[in-house]
TrEMBL record, chain A:
Classification via Pfam families: BPD_transp_2
Highest taxon, organism lineage: Bacteria
Membrane topology: Multi-pass membrane protein
InterPro entries: ABC_transp_permease
Principal subcellular localisation of the protein: membrane
Name of the molecule in the record: Simple sugar transport system permease protein
Organism whose genome encodes this protein: Actinoplanes regularis
Keywords from the UniProt entry: Cell membrane, Membrane, Sugar transport, Transmembrane, Transmembrane helix, Transport
MF terms in GO: transmembrane transporter activity
TM annotation in the entry: 7-24, 44-62, 93-112, 119-138, 158-186, 216-239, 245-266, 273-295, 301-319
TrEMBL record, chain B:
Alphabetical keyword list: Cell membrane, Membrane, Sugar transport, Transmembrane, Transmembrane helix, Transport
Pfam families hit by this protein: BPD_transp_2 (PF02653)
NCBIfam families referenced in this protein's UniProt entry, alphabetically: PRK11618.1
Top-level taxon of the source organism: Bacteria
Keyword Membrane annotated: yes
GO terms under cellular component: plasma membrane
Source organism per UniProt: Actinoplanes regularis
Protein known as: Simple sugar transport system permease protein
Membrane topology listed for this record: Multi-pass membrane protein
Subcellular location: Cell membrane
GO molecular function, one term: transmembrane transporter activity
Length: 335, 341
């Protein structure tokens, strides 16, 4: 009974169910080929990397009671900056220069996060509006950077970020996992997680308790920006070009969904990194499964919508109470 | 903060002093965002007059309504939702569902007078469903309407992924209809409908009990409940209105373009929210006017018009300018509300 009550029970159950479906529908679920793992499961892990990164930053932001709508635009800007700089390189395959450019793109993204964080913490604007500004203007900025064109690059070190393999696993997934481990350690092995939750619970009470709430709020937006930038690099490296319109389009909604599926409360004060990762992988698996089981392409979004509706309702305690409550045999003292 | 004009009883001296201070500031602060938007509109229009030829034609202003009729209808519905402190992300998807469904049914030979109420009803029903989920199951408006977005666009794509032309006689007649305004200018039916929606909505919010309830819930849902106001009914009603307005926006789109497309309306929800914010509607709920949203949409339209007149500017500038304006207005609102406290 306790396992059923766990917040992550239903997401994990649905994820496992979807994976089992994939075992039967895909040609190769997982095999070793050309020196690395290969198959549907690996595709899912590789494809979910950008969403995991974005959702991870979003989790931190949401834990402080905020929200970051600008992640999609930041992805577009980061990809645009990176491709623009790489295109101007004399030798596009120079590893050192590409790494430097990757660093520059991430710093730019972190700076955009700093802008969001300052608006929220210093100016005191509601997070949803503060980040709406960059969401609206950011895509315009990305289009200015690329001059409205799609910039193509021919850089194999850059492409490795998205399509390469290391120790038989996709590099993109390893990057995402490194970020997850880093954030998990920082939040659960230091006091940082506690501070985040306390700021989310009540910023003014935390400030009175001696926590520098403003600094923490600015920090989570910077981290969210940097992770979104990294996700943008993976996205653009995957298609070897910067597409300022399609990059990260609607990813903020998927990311928020992943966070909510993972059991993080949108009002802040509670968060689960593991839940977010499961949520992000679940969303990616859903997308792969829909194609795998042969749902016609025109019905993919409808299928996703139905699963999302079921998930949202199953997460609502009131809904479970109202619908399933009457079947429950009441025994003992009600909790 | 709250816009309810009931005079609170002077409970104690401190309260009375506070109220007096508020009464001094309230008439000013209440209208500052909307007046700022109006001033901005005038400045933009004058700069257009100075810089471009033919900007003085009345058609420039009239066409603002024609070109932004869809956004106007959606922004009105969004205003209701935001006033209660909620948000509706599904409007763009409801537009696409409406256009696709209307075009498909008309192509199948359904009578247009049946199709029209049917799609409007569907939009309202979708809105009511989301409102019910939000109120009764306590799902966040953000999440519930996000699910609504996926559902509506999913249905639209399921019906048809391609652009569908409309050959129906009534639709084409409505599309070609021109209503003369004065000697030289004419406007379309869609512009008139959008303007009518604004006027009706403004009247409902200002003069009906329902309008008062909307503001009260936005001010504080708990207090509204304790006051015995019908919170459930009102909250479901605002999402129903938003769904209806979005469906109406979809119908206006099909009339404007005599076609339907499942990808139509992508991102309209953000334009509508941005219009409301620029028009001084507080996203926390409880304060704002439909006329503010109207002005917000006009600012949107005028930016596009000026960029078109300029000719050599990248369309990306529209988004950047809107972003800068959003920033300016939000900071202004912040200053105004902080002083009012």
């Amino acid at each position: 009974m306790t396992i059923l009550k766990n917040r992550l029970f239903w997401p994990v159950a649905i994820l496992v169910a979807l994976l089992i479906v994939n075992v039967f529908t895909s040609n190769q679920f997982i095999t070793l080929q050309d020196g690395h793992l290969f198959g549907t499961l690996i595709d899912i892990l590789r494809g979910s990397a950008p969403l995991i990164l974005v959702a991870l930053g979003m989790t931190l932001v949401i834990s402080t009671g905020g929200i970051d709508l600008s992640v999609g635009s930041v992805m577009a800007i980061s990809g645009a900056v990176a491709c623009l700089l790489i295109k101007d390189l004399g030798d596009q395959n120079a590893v050192g220069s590409v790494l430097l450019i990757v660093g520059v793109a991430i710093v730019v993204s972190a700076a955009l996060g700093l802008w969001n964080g300052s608006l929220v913490a210093v100016v005191g604007i509601q997070p949803i509006i503060a980040t709406l500004i960059l969401m609206v203007a950011g895509r315009g900025l990305a289009q200015l950077v690329t001059d409205g064109q799609i910039i193509n690059v021919q850089s194999s070190p850059y492409a490795t970020i998205a399509t390469g393999f290391f120790l038989t696993l996709p590099v993109a997934f390893l990057i995402a996992m490194a970020a997850v481990v880093l954030i998990s350690v920082l939040t659960r092995r230091t006091a940082l997680g506690l501070l985040l939750e306390s700021v989310g619970g009540s910023p003014s009470a935390s400030r009175l308790a001696g926590i520098r709430a403003k600094r923490i709020i600015v920090m989570v937006y910077v981290v969210s920006g940097a992770f979104a930038g990294l996700a943008g690099l993976i996205y653009s490296a995957n298609i070897k070009s910067a597409d300022s319109i399609a990059a990260g389009n609607l990813i903020e909604l998927d990311a928020i969904l992943a966070v909510v599926i993972g059991g993080t409360a949108l009002i802040g004060g509670r968060f689960s990194i593991l839940g977010t990762v499961i949520g992000a992988i679940l969303i990616q698996t859903l997308q792969v499964t829909v194609v795998g089981i042969g749902v016609p392409s025109k019905a993919t979004l409808l299928f996703k919508a139905v699963v999302v509706v079921v998930l949202c309702l199953s997460q609502s305690a009131t809904f479970r109470e109202k619908v399933f409550g009457r079947f429950k045999i009441r025994t003992g003292v009600p909790a | 903060m709250t816009t309810i004009d009931a005079t609170p009883p002077a409970a104690d001296q401190k309260g009375a002093a506070l109220n007096r201070r508020r009464r001094v500031y309230r008439p000013n602060t209440k209208y500052i965002p909307i007046l700022a938007t109006l001033a901005l509109l005038v400045v933009m229009y004058i700069s257009g007059l100075v810089n471009y030829e033919n900007f003085d034609q009345p058609s420039v202003i009239v066409n603002l309504f024609r070109d932004n009729a869809v956004l106007l209808a959606v922004a009105v519905g969004m205003t209701f939702v935001i006033l209660t402190g909620g948000i509706d992300l599904s409007v763009g998807a409801v537009i696409s569902l409406t256009t696709t469904l209307a075009a498909t049914l008309l192509q199948g030979g359904w009578p247009p007078l049946l199709v029209l109420p049917l799609v409007l009803l569907l939009g309202a029903l979708l809105g009511a469903g989301m409102g019910a989920v939000i109120h009764y199951f306590k799902v966040e408006p953000f999440i519930a309407t996000l699910a609504g977005l996926f559902l509506a666009r999913g249905l639209a794509l399921f019906i048809n992924q391609n652009s569908i032309p409309i050959r129906d006689k009534l639709w084409i007649a409505l599309s070609d209809l021109r209503i003369p305004l004065g000697e030289t200018t004419k406007t379309t039916l869609t512009a008139i409908v959008a303007l009518a929606v604004v006027l009706i909505a403004a009247g409902v919010l200002a003069w009906t009990r329902f309008g008062r309830n909307v503001y009260a819930i936005g001010g504080s849902a708990d207090s509204a409940l304790l006051m015995g106001l019908p919170v459930a009914r009102t909250r479901i009603a605002v999402y129903t209105i938003s769904g209806f307005c979005a469906a109406l926006g979809g119908v206006l789109y099909t009339i404007n373009s005599t076609s339907g497309h499942a990808l139509q309306g992508t991102g309209t929800e953000l334009d509508a929210i941005a219009s409301c914010v620029i028009g001084g509607v507080l996203l926390t709920g409880g304060a704002g006017y439909v006329f503010g949203s109207l002005l917000g949409v006009m600012v949107f339209g005028l930016i596009t018009t000026i960029i078109n007149f300029q000719g050599d500017l990248n369309a990306a500038w529209t988004r950047i300018v809107v972003g800068i304006l959003l920033f300016g207005f939000i900071v202004l609102q912040r200053l105004v509300t902080r002083r009012a406290r």
